[in-house]
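Here comes my example:
=====
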Amino acid sequence: MFINQFYFEKKSFILRLFVICLLSLIIYKQWIISYSSYKAYFFYEGNEHVVNRTHYPKEAFVTFTTSRQDYIDLLNVLLDSVHLFSTRSVIIFSIDFDLIINRTRHPRVTIERISHKQCGPTTYACKILAMISSEVNYGVQLEVDSVVSYNIDLLFDMLHIWPYDLPLGPKHPDDPGNYKFDMEDHKVKYRTIPYIHGTFVWTYRAYPFLRHLLKLMQRGAFTNANCDETGMNIMLWKAKANHTLCKYDPFGSSNIEKYEQSQSAPKCSPYCDGVYLIFHGQKESFLSQNILERILDPFFTYSEIYERWPNVTNCSRYCHTAFVTLHGNKEANVSSALLTRLKANIGKPPIQTLGMGGMKYLNDTSATCCYPDSKPSPIHPLLCEHYL
């Protein structure tokens, strides 16, 4: 009887030890998923790695695209502008297809394929997935309908001295105001910064925040509003963020005119304050090409503000702008034309100011690209502090 009791206790001890080891393994695995700052784990079935990132650059532009030909055409113009105006590389995440590019034309490009199922129920979550998957220490997210300007690398300079663990975005010129339900759903009582546009920059410190945002989006959050853009704003408010970037990504087809004619065009109204680093929103590649051509060609008369500097423009609305990118070009030939025009305007001051202040350089302490509801941050001229 003593022997039977001994074997029973031994068997019970082994069983308890096995259960303890199994639980320890599960807890360790969950700890790794939750707290690793440099390994991207995704909240879909399997939690497997998306790509092998050992060959990635430490700082880069990051974008994503589907297989639509108009997007690929726009992407090529975006890559033209990056290779012309920046020293950094580009990481492209192609969704459910193998992207092929001209390596001679665009040598500083890394391409990885991801699946839509890894993003979640909306394609917009692929933007956040791409940012996390890049694992860069300093990243600038770009839309394919954008064209960058000659001073785009200012964003990386800013990121190198950004000390906090939150991503950043430029102030949106027109707050959509459609996020009340999401604020209530996530127990956010008030905004801490103005609504920012869905073009984001980040450092390695922001990955825990980004992974949490992606997890929420993969579970269906924020799909009733502006998806990634709304989600980023809601979670930044919840985190008590108090910084935004200047509006550095004006809508391309219209704002290139402000940039070109910067000092002589009629009064600028609205959206006059900002920094012209990116021109976005071109949904056709010929629009992006048009922006680029106008930067290159000083005699292109379509523009109003940027191209005509040093002739002063009286700006009354949407004036706080930093001409870093132009976005919103929906046709590749338009993006290409914009890029050509940007080439012609290399070296022009990028800061659009209110009234008859004209265009200013970033180091001009008499001007700021921050809106009146904020103040310039001592960290960097492109940063604005808010106390709403």
User: Anything to note?
Assistant: The mean pLDDT is 81. The radius of gyration is 24 Å.
